[in-house]
Amino acid sequence: MAQGKDSLQQILDDVASAAFATPDRGRVADYIPELARVNPDQFAVAVARPGKKTMFAGDAHTPFSIQSVSKVFTLALALGKVGDRLWARVGREPSGQAFDSMILLEQEKGRPRNPFINAGAIVTTDTVLAGSSPRETLGSLLRFVRAAAGDDNIHINESVAQSEITTGHRNFALAHFLLSHGNLANAPDLVLGTYFHQCAIEMTCTQLANAGLFLVGDKAAPRLVSPDRIRRINALMMTCGHYDGSGDYAYRVGLPGKSGVGGGILTIVPGIASVAVWSPGLNNYGNSKLGTEAMQRFADMTGWSVFGSR
Ligand code: GLN
């Protein structure tokens, strides 16, 4: 990256102006009624680096629904709880299918392809839930996320969770299918109640960038998981974090990332930074349209792709 005190800030300002000036903002997720109400004109980007002040541009202090970005935190907790035994219940391969797809789950007898598609995340939530109540589980998850972000002002939006409880029929179908194959230890309504609340965690872009610092793998970052786990979680984010758009994100950005239908994306620059972007409009894969475009611009300008700079 170009040297100079303000160069990173200049890049963030440039990325934000380009995003605000883009007329085609994608489509806000409307299958969760509460998310359909979010204003698509918003955009934010924030960069957290171990031991340095977090930088941002745009609406970086507006909370948004992190949705599937939460699957990264649940995966870290599930691996912490059962270690590699998790892989007996969920795979580590990209699915090439939409996040809520059922087709491979049927072909592969109830073992989801990876922990970031919905079926796989329902299994990791079930793993974290085993032996405790949904309230305790969500308490541990919030504690983890708050410790990661160094910020106690992170909460669950109950209306968003309720909105999904009443409309999330496909997730109920996935959970029941998992149960029919013996791959769910808890009752589907308990697992999904926990899963929908975990998805309804709200964070600002600044908080999310800070919360990703534990995956950067730097000594000055919060040490919440081992270096070995950091490497593995990043590998899964790179290969599976954007569903059937994971190859596209790797091609365009070249960094491990995890998206959510709230329009947030958490991207890790191993050894350097944790970057969060947010713009509510989605592309055809259900990933933030402007967020993806912004990260492509950001990776080009910083030269931070793990595959080399230009
Ligand atoms: N809560 C959402 C769902 O289960 C999460 C999906 C997503 O962010 N891709 O449908």
From TrEMBL:
Key words of the record: Acetylation, Hydrolase
InterPro entries associated with the record: Beta-lactam/transpept-like, Glutaminase
Binding annotation for substrate: 68, 118, 164, 171, 195, 243, 261
Gene Ontology MF terms in the entry: glutaminase activity
UniProt-listed Enzyme Commission number(s): 3.5.1.2
Pfam families (alphabetical): Glutaminase
Broad enzyme group: hydrolase
Catalysis: reaction(s): L-glutamine + H2O = L-glutamate + NH4(+)
GO biological process: glutamate biosynthetic process; L-glutamine catabolic process
Superkingdom of source: Bacteria
UniProt keyword Cell inner membrane present: no
Signal peptide stretch: none
Recorded family membership: Belongs to the glutaminase family.
Summary of subunit composition and partner proteins: Homotetramer.
HAMAP family for the chain: Glutaminase
Name under which the protein is recorded: Glutaminase
Organism for this UniProt entry: Roseovarius litorisediminis
